[in-house]
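Narrative of accomplishments. A recurring question from our advisory board has been how the design workflow behaves on a single, concrete structure rather than in aggregate. To address it, we present the structure tokens for one chain from the evaluation set, followed by the sequence designed for it. No filtering or post-editing was applied between the two.
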């Protein structure tokens, strides 16, 4: 059977650039919509899910992936956590500075390790566990000493981290259980999550009447900005899927660190978020911990692959000798 031609270096660079740009733009654009137009959070999340659903239908028509039938009942817990993590991280963005929002997201790594250790009986090396110390201290220093510190914002960020960690763990479990890739899973998740949020919106955000979503006289600029956030959110999901499928974990991790730094910089420049020296120390401490974590995990992955590659080579040599 013929092998598919590997993508050109130029196309890889284009997709990496698209992912970096879209990931930064979606954070800053969401923040802009919240600050400028006061658009309701849960409704915005629901619209993102709807646009993603439509985008995936188009991707299916172009043969970018083959859908696989999945049991809706078993997808419900995953869709609920999907709703929760997007809603609470957006609430964190709405109530915190961009810097604090971005730094708090780094606590997802320690939270995932705790969940996998105590509930899924997975083990991690001492080196990996030690990287959680600078990450946690750095997050605390940046958040606590933020001039615009918000108790409700930190509460939303904390809940968002817990739900995001649970979601990411369950995504891995469900992909193994159903033998599907991320796009096949998202094809069911997105519309189901949008459907679930339709029942939640009326309880927290007025739909009609004074200040209602429908009755509010939104400007053309506001509607365009909201629709743009949905398109950019879909582009982020699509580019992440492509990068994971066509490049190495090292490439994806390095791109993630670049987005981390550039989003922080964008927040401080665009929204004039004030920053103290102790916060800068916390940011560098967190970034150092995240870089160390990525380095040790990739090192362990290479160590696991090396014996397998050697064994495969030895077996191939043995076959040639027999022939």
């Amino acid at each position: 059977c013929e092998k598919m031609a590997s993508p050109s270096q130029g196309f890889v660079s284009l997709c990496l650039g698209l992912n970096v740009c879209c990931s930064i733009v979606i954070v800053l654009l969401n923040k802009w919509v919240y600050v400028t137009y006061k658009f309701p959070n849960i409704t915005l999340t629901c619209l993102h899910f709807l646009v993603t659903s439509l985008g995936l239908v188009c991707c299916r028509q172009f043969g970018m992936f083959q859908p696989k039938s999945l049991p809706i009942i078993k997808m419900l817990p995953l869709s609920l956590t999907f709703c929760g993590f997007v809603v609470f991280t957006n609430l964190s963005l709405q109530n915190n500075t961009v810097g604090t929002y971005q730094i708090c997201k780094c606590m997802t790594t320690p939270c995932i390790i705790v969940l996998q250790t105590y509930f899924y009986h997975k083990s991690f090396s001492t080196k990996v566990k030690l990287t959680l110390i600078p990450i946690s201290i750095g997050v605390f220093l940046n958040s606590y000493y933020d001039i615009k510190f918000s108790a409700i914002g930190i509460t939303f960020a904390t809940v968002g981290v817990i739900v995001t960690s649970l979601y990411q763990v369950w995504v891995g479990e469900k992909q193994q259980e159903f033998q599907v890739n991320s796009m096949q899973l998202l094809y069911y998740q997105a519309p189901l999550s949008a459907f679930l949020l339709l029942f939640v919106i009326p309880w927290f955000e007025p739909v009609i009447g004074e200040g209602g979503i429908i009755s509010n006289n939104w400007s053309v600029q506001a509607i365009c900005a909201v629709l743009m956030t949905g398109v950019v959110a879909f582009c982020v999901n699509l580019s992440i899927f492509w990068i994971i499928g066509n490049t190495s974990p090292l490439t994806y991790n390095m791109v993630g660190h670049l987005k981390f730094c550039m989003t922080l910089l964008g927040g401080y420049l665009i929204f004039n978020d004030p920053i103290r020296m102790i916060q800068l120390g916390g940011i560098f401490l967190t970034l150092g911990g995240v870089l160390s974590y990525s380095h040790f995990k990739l090192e362990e992955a290479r160590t696991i692959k090396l014996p397998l590659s050697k064994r495969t080579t030895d077996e191939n040599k043995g076959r040639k000798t027999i022939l």
